Amino acid sequence: MSLKVSVYDTKPYDREHLLASENSDKIEWRFLEFRLTEETAQSAIGSDVVCVFVNDKIDRACMISLKNQGVRLIALRCAGFNNVDLQAARELSIAVVRVPAYSPNAVAEHTVGLLLAVNRKLHRAYNRVREQNFSLRGLVGFDLAHKTVGIIGTGRIGKVTARIFRGFDCNVIAFDEYASLEWASSHGIEYVSMESLLKQSDIISLHTPLNKATHHLLNDTTLAITKPGVTIVNTSRGKLIDTSSLIRFLKSGHVRGVALDVYEEEEGIFFEDLSGEILQDDELALLLTFPNVLLTAHQAFLTEEALSEIARVTTTNIIRLASQEPFLEDTTL
Question: Parallel, antiparallel, or unpaired: how do β-strands 73-76 and 230-234 relate?
């Protein structure tokens, strides 16, 4: 008997890759375009598994509703899990799995791509040329070679990003509570304190999970000690940056440029087509007016390789639930 799986916040690429994954035919898929919350949890009735993404909200109330409907597994098709109440899941005996390393290369490459684009004003140049404006005024950038890049968080993605920057002949420094000293030594990377990294870095790239310690990691206090003219890139979690503080430091000129693939209050905005509506988030609307700010809508993961790996890991864990085998290594929360 196949397991019944409700997939929330489904986009066409989710459906395509999940249905194409090995053993997908052994699963009874139910694809839903809306997000999973306490209010929508009743839609999971009859499901053994719910498959969710970054903006689904699986708090205690939602979890209780899922438990009452017989849900046994929450399968995150992402690495982050700050939107899931893990304590409630343990108390209710609902297993939670994720995809911890779908493609470090995808996110790392997008990180560097964003940095190159905001530095060399590629987004502005593209729009100019389309309007037959071939002026170069205001498009001056800087060489990456010999600049100091600070990597905050040296997990899988942070490590790949650091290696790419070393390929640009950058001086790479890093901060992580759990330093990988052997890796750093073999790649010419130096671990430093957080304060030292903020003070030294021409470019700061964020690759750390969101938790109580890292919430608003960049704020009025920490931004104040960054190097004047710093460029900041965030492809990790939006709430690592206090948006109000970031805007103040952009306005003052202290921050030279910002490239974001995530945003503090992206829920209900990112992944949606709002082109015919008035944007209700005033801070996001303001950021979009800054010529030295470049945003993409949480697409760093969006490569064929990453989507295939997300589907493979997710499907495998669902099948293992049915066969009562252990979930894939490093995926259980």
Answer: unpaired
Q: Summarize the confidence of residues 87-105 as an average pLDDT.
A: 94
Catalytic residue among 35, 298, 309, 312: 298
The mean predicted confidence, pLDDT, of the chain is 96
| C-alpha dist (Å) from residue 105 to 158, 185, 194, 209, 237 | 10, 21, 25, 17, 17
Catalytic annotation, pick one of 237, 256, 309, 312: 237
First to last CA, the chain: 26
Q: Would you call 98 a catalytic residue per the annotation?
A: no
- Please state, in angstroms and rounded to a whole number, the distance separating the CA atoms of residues 63 and 86: 10
Q: Tokens 């303001």 correspond to what residue?
A: 286
Which residues are paired to 3 by β-bridges? Answer: 27
Question: What distance in Å separates the CA atoms of residue 182 and residue 29, rounded to the nearest whole number?
Answer: 44
Q: Would you say residue 63 has pLDDT above 90? A: yes
What pLDDT is stored for residue 79 in this prediction?
Answer: 86
Q: Are 122 and 116 in contact (CB under 8 A)?
A: yes
Domains 3-102+303-323 and 104-295 belong to one CATH topology: yes
Does the annotation mark 266 as catalytic?
yes
CATH of 104-295, one of 1.10.390.10, 3.20.20.70, 3.90.400.10, 3.40.50.720: 3.40.50.720
Is domain 3-102+303-323 classified as CATH 3.40.50.720? yes
Average pLDDT over residues 171-184: 97
Banded pLDDT at 1 (limits 50, 70, 90): low
90 is catalytic: no
Note whether 58 and 6 are within 8 A (CB). Answer: no
Catalytic residue among 110, 207, 264, 266: 266
Q: What is the pLDDT of residues 101-140, one digit of tens each?
A: 888 999 999 999 999 999 999 999 999 999 999 999 999 9
At 137, the amino acid letter reads R
In the chain, domain spans? 3-102+303-323, 104-295
